[in-house]
Design a protein that fits this description.
The structure is a homooctamer of 249-residue chains. The first copy, chain A, is an alpha/beta fold and 249 residues long. The first copy, chain A, contains eleven helices and nine strands. In chain A, the strands form two sheets. A five-stranded parallel beta sheet of chain A has the order 6-5-7-8-9. In chain A, strands 1-2-4-3 form a four-stranded mixed beta sheet, with helices on both faces. The longest helix of chain A has 16 residues. The relative contact order of chain A is 0.11.
Chain lengths: 249, 249, 249, 249, 249, 249, 249, 249
């Protein structure tokens, strides 16, 4: 029963004032106007369901994916282990597993046709995180250009890609170790850069703290930072920005 | 002399091949095609000049502002001390100083008419940082809705503003202490949230480390984090996103 | 207009379904059932208003206190500077200022008569934080026994107070430097210990990090820890526990 | 021989003054009045014995449990490995092992009938820590309501449980990653919230440091924090508070 | 009344069993055998009273010192500000104030004649902490050899003093910045080295964390470390060791 | 087509001004004058190729090495696992693998004959990192003197090698735990010391943080520090300095 | 050839002035007077050889032990793995291995008969570190009293052992988690306390940082702290102090 | 008396064997062969005296400078306050004070004519540290090219200076905030880069920790890092490298 129905029944006397009062008081806020709230927020926003793999058993993953598949809901599962993926694919052969970024996707309709996102990495070891970001952005309808291994130690590699970087609605810059890629890139383009520090490195990189601090302290404007190794978060944010950019096309 | 002129002179023989080669080799990359590069990047992107106040003498600030004013260039100066502001205003009475956020602006034309950004704070002590963000976004053409003192300890205050939050192209969430505002807000809206941790708090807030970590670890998707107290960075990023959103209106 | 009134007007047709729906949708959750929500949560819980002094101007503090005084609402203001206190007392001479703990209280009725809380400190330098805790607990109706300077370096001092400690409904243990007081005390009593690390110390106490970690890692059971120097938080929690203990007397 | 017996024998001359003096001087403080002190403090407080599993061999665990079982003493063992549990159950089939929270319990009488504690988690990965808390509280006689996966990223889930949360004598809020659950909950209820940060998360959660700081810095009053992943400590503190609340029923 | 008296009165019936039982139960442990426990531990150990200056008002310092002076008790006050010292000296002209190390001493008898302690520093900026250590050791009866500015960057300076270092019963090594003095010294002598990291330095010395870690990680055996800048603690420990060494002379 | 060719074609009219302008604008900066830029920077500097092993599959390592071998390019691969090494050696038997330092080298010509570098370690456990440094310096043409296990806890071992240390163009000092070797050495020689902290140690060495801080805070002048365990970086820097020293021989 | 021999040969002309000069100049400092310096410092001090196990191969350990055994030198090897121990015992069956503390000892004469050291632990999980300390102290000739599991959460356990603690020349206090044992103990005795933080604990104990800070910040005087888990260092320091105490017996 | 003289006297019998033995044993190592060791190491290396200003009184600075001036020794004093400088200049008017970098120099001869060092900064706020480096390098005989405000956020500024950077024997890269300048520069040149992190920045720059970590983790080879704000250390190291490079000209 939604709020409108409730109010109608109050008006007609089917529901007493006391009952209505209590009902409204206890309801979750969002339920008042929107039955879809029982579904995950990402679905509500038209973005499809997202599942976070770690801490879920193989059985749970299979069950959740099957549940959504039955409803023809698109699903993106992140940080999925090969064991989890294999089990899902046994039941849902249409599920697609990307090994490097450990994403598993299940699509029942074509994604929105959003604009263009560039995903860059400083080195080759950052690619798994970048793939997570890229697959996430693609799942939500973005076109993704992968520009890998363009770290600032050999800055000409980045410059060789400058034209394409400048055309993107937004750029996801993935880098470990010193993490300077985000700042240098942001200094070269006009659109937002989403910075993803990675745990790639050793010693004083402190599992990603060094690139995280580098990115937060960047002198270049136009950078938003996400958690260490959080490719998904970057891809999601990129899709949101892209959707805004493409809204009125 | 820009690249075009150089090439013309190579063609006509006024400049030898050797000279042209050396010239092109040594030139900064961006200078090749764009004389505007002598100007700050933000100007190039149509966003106006930005000056960072700290570490500059009163005389330097006055000189720089005067220089831009002479060229009718719009200027935003951040973290400007009252002494610096007063000195500029003595020479340029049209300069506007906002005390809380310590921004000084100088406009010679109407800003672009970009869309709508909401700037929220957890508490009243976060307002200076929020004002820096708001003034920055406004300088770059955004409409800003200020929604202050809506921290999660009294979450009904945030909910009372939900409708307006959901209409914004993007939200700047400014919070110190526990910093949960960004995550809770991102869970309630569809558009990007730019999270600004502040150094407001004491003890285990460690001058903003606590809200910084909270924001980086948020379970809600769609959050980009900037440096502690970096209101300017958040306002700039909000303006970039807003510009993308409004591009095609 | 509260929810009950609204529902009555829906029933009688004074308010249309559409209006009622929108109203309910936009209302802060808590407002639905409880008009007192415009007031601070602490008031709602019968505990009186609380004001946090830092970041407020002298004028703001005076204004807020006057506002509450006009409504005969009890007020506790914490971390109030002598300047702020003096200004309030000029307008409201009945306001009481406690210098050490920097609390300012304004009472218009007798507090609840809750049970007994013991507030201990490791050293004399911890007393300001302890006074903040004690005054807070007293404001909310607790009886407070102050047991100061009973640090574990001379443990007989603590033992001399054991009988009284064991009678308290709960104990607030305030300590800087090594911060072992909370753990040793919890090992001696049956009721909860609220541990308050203080920034008292030097060198490797790291402004309260050392006692904070000590308290979090205590081997004794029955300890809840609050932020460094957070006397108010400890006093509030003690009052909550005390209220539970005394509920059914 | 307890103190009373000793004194009687001094009076009758069976024990010389010298002997009695030495005996009293060397005795542990608590032994003076209470022979039960040879037993664990938790037993003395009527709460039953507690054993901490890590660092004990399978043989040791079995031996300790058997020892208590022979005396019909209730036992709670925490962080018990499956191997340890299996070995105990082979000898004491009545021992109950809860896999998720890794607690093992042995009861010989019905627990006290204390009041009602709510144990909440932010996500599903926090459940093991929450189960440790819940089982501990139950072992000490509390009724526990489990409210799992109500993190603030989808805050309507928490609101749907508000009524039950408000009825609890105290709430244990278990959360990793950003850890905002405790603060948001404390802002919605009147009774104490015991906050348990968990090591769930990655990157800048730093194995639980992020939620720990969030919880310590919460703007909402009425929160006591325990160590990262310390479900037992939270359950114990909840039971203490509950016992106070139920004392006089 | 001490334990012996009590027992006698129990025997003679002057004190009832019940009274005696309660009395023994509540007494602080240490009081049972030793009335001196009302005095500070350091006095009990024949070492004289110690007062920690910070956090005490000028009046309190004067009062405490006067109190001890009236009883002809020796007093060492540490971290005494010039203001505090001046006020004490106005009342007690015989009090001696050492400016660099900020110690104030009041002696009424000759100190014990303990053996020989060497106090070394890495640089001249470490001398205040070293003086606190030296004065403390002297107060407790040690002979002190001051060996300042013998840091390892010019290691011949340390070697020039090797003979005297090897004769000391123990060595206090005071150093900031890299803090390698303690380890190098311990590698050259047979007796214990007490290492005192200082907050002297800048940048990555992190107010003494760098030398603290260096000293804790020293490869040389025979080092005990005290808190950053804790000259008093080092001097006290040196005196304890010296007393052991000299006991049987 | 390089810049010279382009300019010639502009002069002869084969390329239009517009085309040339666009071409120059988009080119990576370094490509303008130097086709070798497609190669790695280290090659450009005459130093040979460097490959970082971690994060590369066995196949990738073999492929890259084969690629260079086909062009007779010298290769240094660092942090190569035994598995990776074995696979390369199966295809390229001339490849040399050094187990301790995990370097794999492939030489097709004699290296430059640069001067003399000393590589020292504090302990035996630091040798793997030192070997990485030594092999790197040798690969780039240095003569290397290995001086291992000369930590400052037994400083005579270092002094026994002083003459040879003073002859080196530069010294690589490798040390974990307290890390004082670099500072003591720099105090004894005239030439630069490259300090390499290692993760050797336990407890408060924090995986190399302790020696890193020691080295950064050294009172001795003439020290440049590299990342924890970064033997390669130290060897490379030593070779650069050595090359400068030997340039004009 | 020692210095005396050299000088004699200079006198008799067997060695030229030039040769002698060079020899003296290059010699390690300690070699000048003491041929034993080729041996480890600990031997020089009459304390026997010490070997640190980690990072040494089984073969190396066997070789070193055999080398010393051949010379009838006493050896203490610390942190020896069972594999290493077994291999040594196969060759040297008289070698004694203590599993918990992982020490291996080889004695060829009776140790010195030094005085009495007490080694305490907070919990049972600290025993391995305590055993390392105890065995080390015993190897160097101390009598050791083991007082385990006397943590401050049940402080009567510590008090029960007070008499013996007060008789010890020095006390080694080993504790993880909160680490308050050292401070409480130091407050109860007159002699030095050597504090050993352990990595026992979880969450905010940060692998021993919490007890390390507790111990460094102790309010009780007379504490020297060693590295986390450094049982050997504590035992060595205890033996040094004990030797001083017993020197003149 | 130097070693040669001693040996001659031993030979002639003027000094007994016993006397000579003791003398050699106690002498500082370096004194044996080198009387210059009484002077500071930097003097010994022909580099002139260096004085560190902080912690020295105005009188001490004047006295030390006068002492050296009397001996016509060149002096470089760093971190000299204006008060200290003024006092020195009153006595020694030839002393030169550079305000920004706070260096004071006193030269009595022309410096060596070493090669060319480039000193770069990321921003204008880094200039004081850069000036300290530059003046230091100049004092020791280097030619210095100052290249300020070439941070990577506007990377064309750096590229505009590439030719001059590539000609330098070594480069000092001074940068705060993100600190990426060192890595990008090292990727563009062949010679060593000395990286100086500065405390310029705010929030998550943590007083220079962020650029320090960035520099230590740089992917580009050929970087040696010094302490935060350590301009002197960088200038000194640059001079050492330069001296090596210029040795054989």
């Amino acid at each position: 029963m939604d709020v409108r129905q409730l109010l109608e029944q109050v008006k007609t006397g089917k529901v007493s004032l006391e009952e209505a009062e209590r009902y409204l008081k206890d309801l979750p806020y969002e339920d008042i106007g929107c039955a879809k709230l029982d579904y995950h927020r990402s679905l509500r926003s038209g973005f499809g369901e997202v599942i976070y793999g770690p801490g879920k058993t193989v059985e749970q993953i299979v069950q959740i994916c099957s549940h959504f598949a039955a409803r023809k809901a698109n699903v993106l599962a992140t940080r999925v282990s090969p064991q989890q993926a294999e089990a899902v694919q046994r039941v849902l052969p249409e599920a697609e597993y990307e090994k490097l970024g450990r994403t598993l996707t299940l699509r029942f309709d074509a994604p929105r046709d959003l604009g263009f996102v560039a995903v860059c990495t400083g080195g080759t070891a950052d690619i798994p995180v970048a793939e997570e970001a890229a697959r996430t952005a693609e799942f939500f309808g973005c076109h993704v250009e992968r520009i890998f291994d363009v770290g600032v130690a050999g800055i000409h590699r980045l410059f060789a890609k400058l034209e394409i970087l400048r055309k993107a609605n937004c750029i996801v810059a993935v880098a470990g170790m010193e993490g300077a890629l985000a700042g240098v890139t942001a200094g070269l383009v006009e659109n937002p850069v989403i910075a993803v520090p990675t745990s790639v490195g050793y010693g004083a990189s402190f599992q990603g703290v060094a690139p995280l601090l580098t990115m937060l302290n960047s002198c270049a404007e136009g950078i938003g930072v996400v958690n260490i190794d959080n490719g998904f978060g970057a891809g999601y944010l990129a899709a949101q920005i892209n959707r805004l950019a493409e809204k009125s096309r």
